[in-house]
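Task 17 of the worksheet. Students: predict the tertiary structure of the chain below and write it out as structure tokens. Keep your answer in the requested format; marks are given for formatting as well as content.
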Amino acid sequence: MRAVVFAYHNVGVRCLRTLLARGMQVDLVVTHPDDPAETLWFDSVAALAREHGILVELVDETIAPAVLERVKRLEPDYVFSFYFRRMLPVELLHTARLAALNMHGSLLPKYRGRAPVNWAVLHGETETGATLHIMQAKPDAGDIVAQQAVPILPDDTAKDVFDKVTVAAEIALWGVLPQLQRGVVPRQRNDLAQGSYFGGRKPEDGCIDWHRHAQAIYNLIRAVAPPYPGAFFSVSGHRLIVARARLARPEIAALLPAPSTLGLHVAGGHALGKSGDGGIVHLLELWDANQPGIALNTRQISELAGHTP
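Model answer:
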């Protein structure tokens, strides 16, 4: 069987490796040029493809007609999309003799759309996974071909979960590839009425509202923790990024005297954030947004906390 692969990020790398390990002939890999303004914490699909002698096309915003014509000429049995950041045009999907398949980072029909791992952590889910599904014009709406679930532990960050989803994608693809190579595409209905759709997230969506419950604040911190842009709040004219946090253990929470205002405090040498329900978030590592990656020390945090409105 012959395939054309559209891929990016770690899921793209692992799924391309899986295709090659199962003996799929990959005639072309289409991927994105790396954005110099983005924190590149993931592996390179282009480097892997070139290592295996596979032709590579780079696509930034739109898929050029020349790329579409090249795929048509290759007459692939399958077109795969593994964390490619652009919707593939319907005309391109029709180039696949057997099926055009996408790997999505959730258990469809839940969390269709953008940033599925981040949204799942934000909403306090205890499980997510990876789904290989048929591509059609509507995003993440085609029949399900294979799925693999993974747990979300209470203190997992989105990066922790993304690493698990990457492995889940590999397992799901590995398991179904023998059928696909026989020309058999298993299908299960993707019941959209039982799921949800979410759009993309922006760095400003990470702003902490201390009036919210402690669990909701902690979920936000976990959902956008570095290498994502990070949850943040402002104090004394400084934007602080919460790089690491936990819900405070009882003995830590008890260090904060009552009554206390919402937001940042330092007690017993610990940076603590008080929420609207009285819960306490233990802020284990804070960064000044002007110096990301450099943790503030207790003295610096104390000075800022002393000026908290």
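Marker's comment: Residues 204-305 form a domain with the Methionyl-tRNA Fmet Formyltransferase; Chain A, domain 2 fold (CATH 3.10.25.10). Residues 158-181 form the longest helix (24 residues).
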